[in-house]
Amino acid sequence: MVGGPLRSDIWAARERMTHRVGSNREIRKLAENLEEGETVTHLASGVYEGGTGLAALTDRRLLFVRDALTGRVMEIFPFEAITAAQWMSGILLGRIVVFAAGIKSEIIQVQKPDGKALVDALHAAMARERSTVEPVPTPPAQGTLAGVSSFDLLKELRDRGVISPEELGLIANRL
Questions:
Q1: pTM for the complete prediction?
Q2: Helices 165-174 and 150-159, axial angle in degrees (round to 10)
Q3: Does pLDDT of 62 surpass 70?
């Protein structure tokens, strides 16, 4: 779709941006970087690792795309890999800070309304992602003594030779 009309979700996110200078090429080519059925919700221009580009929040991940002279640079942050995200507002601009896989990444020089909206939406998406993931119950390990009385446990330890009959008597008296 390079040179053609933008997808409706990208167009809507683009129209909500307050500042697009330096990221128009990335906006035009954004659809090339998306997976099948992925929907863009928020966009913000900013600087990541020394280059101006585009932060895009989708229904699946946060990505930063930059078309540089040496080629396309893309950093992907899937929701399940993000442990924390925060918006830090400065005097004129702000920064998006993302912690993923133990690494801190910063997108700086972000317009305040765009960055704040993107991070708020990211927090909501992360909360949805975590609430839809059901915790898998862990089965008890083989050989556990769940449901065994203390006295039966002591007898088992005595029978295995872990404690002596005298120790069994002392411990049983304390119980």
A1: 0.71
A2: 170
A3: yes
